[in-house]
Amino acid sequence: MAIARDEVGAKMPIINGIYAEGSLEAERLATAAAQGGASALLVFPPGPFTMGHRPEMVIDHFKRIANASELPLIAFQYASTSPQSYSLETLIELLDKVPQVRAIKDWISNPHIHNKHIELLQSREQPVNVLSTHSAWLLSSLVLGCNGLLSGSGSVIADLQSQLFQAVEKNDLASAKKLHKRIAFTADVFYANPWVDMHNRMKEALVIMGKIPRAVVRPPLMKISESEILKIQIALKKCRIIKAFS
Q: Is 62:43 a contact under the CB 8 Å cutoff?
């Protein structure tokens, strides 16, 4: 957080992720983020929710985080096939009871439910923005009417994502389709199996682009192979992020 604040200062808002095994730890992280200058908090489902949850557990988790800071909250909505995903009913109850939740990062991975999120949440008396993180089908997601996007691959292709969002906002389908084709090259390599390596791949892309000096990974994650790094390099060239191999 301190490094991010030093780098960007007041030029743009900083969203701090709250990823914790339990609510007490999440409270502590929220307090530290607020004191460190965060503009908003992205709240991941806590670890125990991998075994399922009750709606009151979700509400209490978010209330604790909300009470720890006055920052707006973004609820990370996991894929509908995950036990950590919130049902639409739970999500609506959460928004009713914790009004600090101002947006969701939507990874529901189901176009029908995703569209329901957009229709119901963004039309509330106090609108709740749906921020897409469906990076593998971003164009299809944005044309449904998302008010923004919040994607891990934005660390590499933020400019392309921004251009795509603006093209969709202008109903410029021709430009949007061209940008989608460029983005698809990176999506194919970043989100290949196993998914656990997605951010490792993005770090290697940033090294290739000269943005960071090395791709550090924390155990149990491991550095990806040289052959996979080459695939990333080829993808970056195809989408015209880099002009030539170094």
A: yes
